[in-house]
Amino acid sequence: MAMAPQKSMLAYLKWAIISTVIGLALGAALGWQTEHTVAGMLKVFFICAVLAVLEISLSFDNAIVNANKLKDMTPVWQQRFLTWGILIAVFGMRIIFPLLIVVIAANVGPWTAMVMAASQPEEYARIMHDAHLPIAAFGGTFLMMVALGYFVDEEKDIHWIHWLESRISRYASVKGIEIAFVLTVALLFSRLLEGADRDLFVYSAIYGLLTFLLVEVLGGFLDKSQETASAAAKGGLGAFLYLEVLDASFSFDGVIGAFALSQNLFVIAIGLGIGAMYVRSMTIMLVEKGTLAEYRFLEHGAFYAILILSVIMYFQTLVHIPEVITGLGGAGLIGIALWSSIRWNRREAGTI
């Protein structure tokens, strides 16, 4: 992807802003259609706006991790992710995924699940809520592996919290240490649960771990095959699949948590879809402007946020933790990492 440093912030956010206008207009129209009052229209409009803000705050780290992977991909695969990938993120995770949960949990057909979402939102929301434990265990395990994969790396030579990260990176030579750590955490945490919930948590965590490993193996195999065919095919289909599963893991918590604000699947899809477009815009900006290279600790902040999010997802199987806290916590870590990067740049320049 060609560098475009002259591009303004507004230019990067153009499609996100357009999506915001269209999405909020659709939300207002849906509110009027369902409640036939100005108050009802404004209520749905407000919920869509709040959901979009929550999705953006929860996805700062997602955009940074996406950019970290995208910078090593060819322009062709970058564009494919930013077009096909965003369609999968918006429609797949925000609409199809919640429907699929109900299809599996309630043992009904897709059309019945769609009708339930439209005519029985309370029942639909109840099923989604009941499915939160396995989703949190699966997504939390996957994200924990993603975060540890960044820190447990022998080649990692830039450390933000040096005394901690330098020690962690030394253990990268121990094969399977991340897997052993995550399994230990999952098994210890499962002891806080009882009965069927304990077994469900463990099984879901194992599936999350297996999914991460399969994506890594499949990604390496696919990309290796492409390199054989063409040396320029770096970071192709395998990286694309990795990013899609990663986005799905980030989306789990937001989709489930959104039902606390609205039980209407279509309102949730609009609000979260708007937020997903801002993630796309932020990802493009980070890649094209080379922001990750300019601010050396920004990635560290994102991966620490992912690690904390994974632990929060585990704890959410026990207690409800508001998404606002999760989002602000992640954004706060990234903000501190950005501030540390700016201070480091100034010290290097000899200005302080």
Automatic annotation (TrEMBL):
NCBIfam families the UniProt entry points to: PRK14013.2-2 (NF010616), PRK14013.2-6 (NF010620)
TM spans (from-to): 12-32, 38-60, 81-106, 131-152, 201-219, 256-279, 300-318, 324-342
Organism lineage string: Bacteria, Pseudomonadati, Pseudomonadota, Alphaproteobacteria, Rhodobacterales
Protein's recorded name: DUF475 domain-containing protein
PANTHER family to which the protein is assigned, alphabetical: MEMBRANE BOUND PREDICTED REDOX MODULATOR, SLL1022 PROTEIN
InterPro entries found in the cross-reference section: DUF475
Keywords: Membrane, Transmembrane, Transmembrane helix
Protein's UniProt keywords contain ATP-binding: no
Organism of origin: Gemmobacter denitrificans
